[in-house]
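Researcher: Sequence recovery benchmark, item below. Answer with residues only.
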């Protein structure tokens, strides 16, 4: 596993800490890894839509609303 250092402004850190508490993450690293994976999945789905694939984003939005 690689170590990465990032800088976040206070407002974004507050939002991240709220997500950590709401979802029960054990630490910030776990939350950031999970959010990075979700962002990468969404970017891949968006790229797929640009090539003419449709529907994956709707599933993601629906599942996100349930979670």
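Model:
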């Amino acid at each position: 596993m690689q170590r990465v250092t990032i800088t976040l402004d206070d407002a974004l850190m507050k939002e991240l800490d709220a997500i950590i508490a709401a979802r029960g993450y054990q630490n910030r690293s776990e939350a950031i890894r999970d959010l990075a994976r979700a962002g990468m999945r969404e970017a891949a789905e968006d790229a797929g839509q640009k090539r003419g694939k449709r529907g994956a984003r709707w599933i993601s939005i629906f599942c996100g609303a349930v979670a």
